[in-house]
Every structure is written in structure tokens, then in C-alpha cells.
Predict the structure.
Amino acid sequence: MNKKILILLVSLVIFGSSCSDFLSVNEKNPNSASAVPPKLLLPAVLNNVASLMNTPGNFDFIYLWYGLWSISSGYSQPTALVQYKLLNSSYSGAFNTTYVLGQNLTEIEKSATDPKDAYFLATAMILKVYMFHNLVDMHGDIPYSEAFKSGEGILKPKYDKQQAVYEDLILKLNAAIKLIQNAPSNANAVTANSDIMFQGNMALWAKFANTIKLRMLVHQSGMTGRDTYIKSAIAATASTGYLGAGEGALVNPGFVESAGKMNPFYNRYYSAAGTQQSDGVTYHNAGRDAVDFMNAAADPRIGRFFNPYAGTSFAGNFLGQAAAPLTAANTSKLGFSKGVKGYMIGTYDKSAPLLTDFESLFVQAEAAERGFITGSAKALYNAAMTQSFIYMGLTSAAAAAYVVSDKSVVNYDLASNKINLILQQKWISLNGIAPIEIWTDYRRTGIPAFLHFSEDAAKQNATPPVRLLIPQREIDYNNDNAVAVGVINAFTSKIFWQNR
């Protein structure tokens, strides 16, 4: 991937909550480029979607709240985090960035009006669904139907009901899949230079869309009376298939060992010189729930997710732990071995995942176990475990030996509750990889049930928040519509699919 393309488009894709006011979702950006070809916009957007999803600071609260990471005892425990004190300004960067990226995807959609640009239109639609279903999973109601319509005079878009947004996103995925499958024979090809995820393989784009769709439908599996809708929606595109082994949605623009050009997850912890970033690996340590679960199951991946603090010994702390927590010297750090692929932190040139093959297989395993799709839930679960092992730098043989363990938390045949088995292993497998899905799975199912939440005595609730609040920028710039959503309680205002 030519880095010059990304540099040319930097003004189109801007991150963080410190953007100046003209980048508000509710206002038109006077500096946005016009008539930029989709083939130039697509790689920039893909790169920045991957950066958003793989920058630890955007979602580390999830890993910390749900037993996977802890704050090193060498630091004071951050009060707002350990006491669940959410503000409208808390963790709002992803919301703001999603709308900046959404505007760029809208520009691709506007530019791809020629039937020959069907593939580019479809990729933009799929990425927009990916972004916005994640936003619903975090925030609930969002500006949607009136977003990106400043050209029509809509500067302050209304908020749409979250279930209605989800259902429309499902229709968008159906339409995108149809565009790919019915593209004209002379359609403009999406080349590897434009597509830094699937290198122009449109069959994989269709599978990616269908996998996102399945994930969204499985999210709704706990809702009363929803089975008919779920099964019907799945059946509509069942022939498309889902991402399988070796087909993960992984983005790589050509990461190099240079400042600002490395894998974003790696860059949070290590510099281009290979030295530790300030408050990086010394700040985020292993969570005790994760370490205890993996130790009890004799999981070979533990040495990839975490580093031993001595010899082959692993240990972690609970979040907010005040009573004699393990010292920093006796706590495992996030897994890293310079230049060696397969560790959690990985390498500077590691591809950045949007949706891994093993997450897809775990979702399929749950869907099969619930009777939503055909196929063997056991085979899909075992395949998910195999691909997780391979992703973490281990072998398929090691995975094959592990899944026939005599432990019921590993072996499908020994597990009395198959959904519990699938989601517990999914929880540990997605550590450092897919935080929003980890949060969503717990909120909709309560799995894993053994998690220890913050031990801070002053925490505001026994369990973590079930959603994020409306961002402060929306309060400032779109107040009437934000207020119209109603009073939101971070602990009781559940996302629509949370039926427990």
C-alpha cells in the first residue's frame, strides 16, 4: 500500500475527541475534499477504521471491567474507571470518530453511482454497517437516518431508536451482498492497492457482510419472540456463507517500523525503536480472572496473552484491588516478545483485525447451538479454537490436543452447558482483539458468570455500566435531539438486545 495515499487523505480522516468544532457530526466540514475517487478513499477509511478498533485507549475499559486486564499496582487506581463513574465525556472518542469516518464512507457512496462501481459502493455500505452496529452496541439510540445530510440542510440530526437502526443495518447488508453478487461483468475491480483488507476478493467481502449480519442477529437471541425474525433474516443470505478458517478481516496498509506507521495496538506499548512506551506495558497488566481461568484449564495460550512474571509463573490482579494486591514485580504483563508474531501485543507489522476468523467461527458455533444455522456446533467450536491457537502463534496440533482435554471448560463433549462453553472460550480468545464483542456477550448472556468486578468499595454499582452515555459534543451541538432521547442511566438503560 502506497503510504502517500494515506498522507494525501489525512484531512479526510481525523481521530480523537480533540477535533475542532467544524468536525462535529452536526456540522458540514468546509475542508472536505470533493469528488475523491472511491479507490483512493477506501484504503484510507479502512486503515483508519482499523486504527480506531485497535487502539487500546479507545476500549481498554472493557478489558479492565471484564476480568482480562488490570491496572498495575505500581500506579494509583483511576477513580472514575474503578468506581464506574461515567460522564458524558467518558470514552466518547469512538463515537466522534465513527461519524468522521461515516462521512468519508458517505462520500464513497455518493461517488459510486455508476453501476460499474458496485463493488466500491458495497464495501462502503458494509463498513458503515460495521461502524454503526458497534456504535449502537455501545450507545443505544444514535443519529442515523438524518446523519450526513448537511447538504440537505440537516445540521442537527435526530436520534433513531436502536432496534430500528439495527434492523435497517441488516437490510443494508442484504443490499450490499446483492450488489456484489449481481455486479456487472465490466464492474470496476477493487484492487489490492485499494483494498488493504481482502485484496479485492469480493467473495470475502460478501462473507464479511454476512458474518457481521449473523453476529448482529445472534446478539438478539435473548429477546423474547425474536427467533422467527432471526431465522428469516439468516435464511435470506444463507447461501453467501461466513468467514471461515484463514479468512479473517485483517487490515494492513503496509505497516513499517516507523513512528506513526506501525500497528496501532503495538504502537501503544512499544516505540519504533522497540523500547517501551511510557505507561504502556508497565500500566496494563494481566487480569486475575483471565489468568486463573487459563491456568485452571492448562491453556497453552496463556504464555501468548501474557508474559510470565518469573519462569513459567503467571498471575494477575482484580480491578480496583486494594487489599494486598500483587506487586508489579509479581504480576504478568501483556504478552510480548520482540519480533515474534502471535503475542497479544504482537509486532509492528501485524495486521489489525476488524473481525477474526475465529470470532466468526465462535459466532457460527453459537448460532448452530441455538438452532439458527445448520452445521455442527462442535465442529465450529473446535475450528474456532484451532484458529485462535494459530493466531496466537501456536499449532493446530496443539489446539487439537487441547480441545480433547478432560476439562469441561474446554472439551465440547464434557460441557453440560454448550453456550456457556462457547462464550467462555470466546471471551478469553478475544482478549486484546475484540473488546466491544466481549462487552456485548456479557451484557446479553451474563457469561462468564465467574467474573470479579471492581473491588473498589466506593464503586457506584455492583456490576459495570451497560452502556455509554451520549457524548458531551452532542450535548453541546445537538442538544434538542440528545435531550429528546430521554434520561439515560448507565446501569439500567439497557441496549435493546439485553433481555436479562
